[in-house]
Amino acid sequence: MPLIKTKKELRLQLSLAKQKGSLGLVPTMGALHKGHVSLVVKANSENTTTVVTIFVNPTQFDNPEDLDKYPNTLQADIALLNEISNEIIVFAPIAAEIYGDEMKSKTYDFGGLDKVMEGAFRDNHFEGVGTIVEKLLTLVRPDRAYFGEKDFQQLQIIKKLVALSNIPVEIIGCPIVREASGLAMSSRNQRLSSSLRKEAAFIYETLLTAKFLFGTKSAKIVTEWVADQFEKNTNLELEYFTITDIEKLRPVQRKRPNTKYRGFIAVYAKDVRLIDNIALN
Ligand code: PAF
């Protein structure tokens, strides 16, 4: 499997790959788990060649400690990708290769999609995500790019980004993959102690009940109910639970007919920040 570190080398491999057929891109920050595997397997089944990028993008972290602690498991990641196919192109550059000496984000007008939830709690996060995803899409020029719905807000922002920047690519969202306990797969789960990892199953359990309640109760009542559950839980601290429509991500005041809603949650398990979301109707 070609492991590529430079843009020059990547361009060469891509020109060969493009002669064979279509190209699928799976951008990741490494520490690969079954959620990533599902994206790569899908990309591989829908394209002639799959490119996986492994790059922990500094500009999307507002907390230097979170960046420092982000797991780096490159050798294990490559072994895992090799099990899927030994023809995957893996691009794992250093930051200077991507940003040169200007480690900066661009600014975007995402039409408010970036102002709520993750955008409200993580300064400049989506400008950083937009910047790196635009760079990767422009570099690789894939036919399709794959992103997990665990980061549903990110997925909607990336769809907006490609429309804004006229990037000819199909953005494909893939369902959340969960551990047996229901906890959404995340590279951050590795940082949880085994007892906290079990405890964190509470997040999805609460989302499932919230979905049930949303069938008959208002968004306000469901939101307050979720907050109450976390008040009673001493190991997990709720940062937010927000219900929005799935298109504009506007926090819902009153439920409207013919509108799809999703509940979004961010929780601290000690110093590990976990996010999840669920379709409510
Ligand atoms: O979802 C992620 O892992 C990252 O935000 C992404 C899309 C790879 C950009 O760095």
What does this 3D model show about the protein?
- This protein has 281 residues and is an alpha/beta fold.
- The chain has two domains: 3-174, Rossmann fold (3-Layer(aba) Sandwich), CATH 3.40.50; 187-276, Pantoate-beta-alanine ligase, C-terminal domain (Pantoate--beta-alanine Ligase, Chain: A,domain 2), CATH 3.30.1300.10.
- Helix content is 41%, strand content 19%.
- The chain is built from eleven helices and nine strands.
- It has helices at 7-20, 34-46, 64-68, 74-84, 95-99, 118-121, 125-140, 152-164, 194-199, 201-214, 219-231; strands at residues 3-4, 23-28, 49-54, 89-91, 144-148, 170-174, 236-245, 261-269, 272-279.
- It has a six-stranded parallel beta sheet with strand order 1-4-3-2-5-6, sandwiched between helices. Strands 7-8-9 form a three-stranded antiparallel beta sheet, covered by helices on one side.
- α2 links the parallel β2 (23-28) and β3.
- α7 (125-140) packs across α8 (152-164) and α10 packs antiparallel against α11.
- The radius of gyration is 19 Å and the shape is globular.
- The protein binds pantoate.
